[in-house]
What we know:
GO terms for molecular function: hydrolase activity, acting on carbon-nitrogen (but not peptide) bonds, in cyclic amides. This is N-acyl-D-aspartate/D-glutamate deacylase. It is a single chain. This protein is an alpha/beta fold. Among the domains are: about 60-245 and about 440-495, TIM Barrel (Alpha-Beta Barrel), CATH 3.20.20; about 315-420, no CATH class. It contains 19 helices and 24 strands. Strands 1, 2, 3, 4, 5, 17, 22, 23 and 24 form a 9-stranded mixed β-sheet that branches. Strands 6-7-8-9-10-11-12-16 form an 8-stranded parallel β-sheet. β6, α1 (about 70-75) and β7 (about 85-90) form a beta-alpha-beta unit. The chain is globular and about 75 Å long.
Amino acid sequence: MAGKEYDVVVRGGTVFDGTGAPPVEADVAITGGRIAAVGAGLAAGAEEIDARGKVVTPGFVDVHTHYDGQAVWDDEMSPSSWHGVTTAVMGNCGVGFAPCRPSDRDRLIELMEGVEDIPSPVMHEGLTWEWESFPEFLDVLDKGARDIDLCALVPHAPVRVFVMGERALRLEPATEADMAQMRSIVADGLRAGALGVSTSRTTNHQSATGDYTPTLRALEDEIQSLVSGIEDAGHGFLELVTELNTRDVLDEFAMLRRVISRSKVNTFFSLTQNRTVPDLWRELMDFADDAISEGIPIRPVVAPRPIGMLLGLEASQNPFAGTATYRRIADLPLDQRVAEMRKPEVRRRILSEDPTEFSTFIFLSRIPYSNMFRFGNPQNHTPGPEDSVAAQAARESREPAEVAYDILLEDGGTGLIYTPFNNYHEHSMAACEEMLRNPNTVMGLGDGGAHVGFILDAGFPTWLLSYWVRDRQAFPLEEGIRRLTSDTAGAAGLTDRGRLATGLRGDVNVIDVDALNAGYPYVAFDLPLGGRRLLQRVSGYDATLVNGQVTYRNGEPTGARPGRLVRAGNRS
Length: 572
């Protein structure tokens, strides 16, 4: 590096420092993985990145992912890393793989498969099980080099199963001895470097065998034991997902408020608009606002668009996957399956059969054709009622099932049906916008690494900046960037990243905002054993740097793997 003052200089970009401050035209210099200087006319770097006419931001921090398995078998945390994410928190929703006795491995896999739609053969093949305790799990993660940094939460469900065994699966109350052991396990995990603890209290979270998550009915004292473990360790936060479709949730949050008011531990809960009780989210938002005003730190984590499923012939599910005839051809290669489905007699049989008879998709019976839409290319995340399968069928004097069938066969069998189930009451994203405008909310819920066969929301950062900031101009660019950087980093307790300032991590994005876009979803068979997942190519990210090394250029990986496990307490 003779004659070069810095390792890397990102030259001449419009620099947004991540705090929400107005941008400045400046250079960003990095040395030893840290930001060495931000200013105009900096000295040369061994590597120069031309950012003229482009936006320069801190790397994005995603607080809600499920890369717990993928981090074991892969060094690329895609799709999140394709969307400018340089640090991700995993272990959310109370599910994970540690602590775990050998006899409980299948149970945790079944739970992860049911809750997060990661196929069990993929996990059986990819997980090495070189651990039993949570600190041992972190040690295994620590051996790996990746394209982003990862942080972990201690998940409540494995802790409960580890302590209570079959009693946990039967949803029995924990004893005093159980809770004392859970408290100790949580504290040990946090001392080993976990950022916090997560739990789930929703009936939507079920194992692949249909059993509820073991944490569903944990009583207040048990939740308190988790929080006490955080207090014992001296750091950490609580993350939870709970029931959002009944009025009982208000009692649930009153309990949560009692627990948190005793400890002041930072707490985050997932908040979306539920279709069956579309106004309840606002009551919960008010609850959080009121708690925060009284010094009780309970923040909602929200999504920037409808949360919905993609149904297709190569996706995990489609509207006809439960029929007897489709099941007989389901394992054929796509082209052969499409050829069969185009045969009049096969079409007639599939359309005449009960789609729920052999279905493994518990939500299928709850999705009317009025809430199914051709996804289209360019993709349409905001369809109107006139775009529904039911509306198209009425216009064409056909049965809705016929229209859905034809959509699946489009483009050689790659056609997709979109069905939004949260955040889209009366075909409006008004709730999303109101949630995003609330200063107490945290941007998240992309679920990178999970729901690999029918949900593709890891691109939420790209959507926030392209749709809400660029296209709708609902927020200034500096605010959109703040919500993805300093705000999420601060929420996770990561004080060394999320801002472009001297001494902080050299995690940087160089972005062509006008070109930001996520392409049409496609299926890749790149998981262990050739397992499938939905992906989409991304444009607009000219460069992404992690720890001062360029990991992506123009959306293509460089092969650099500077990402590591980040342990709380500066143990990274």
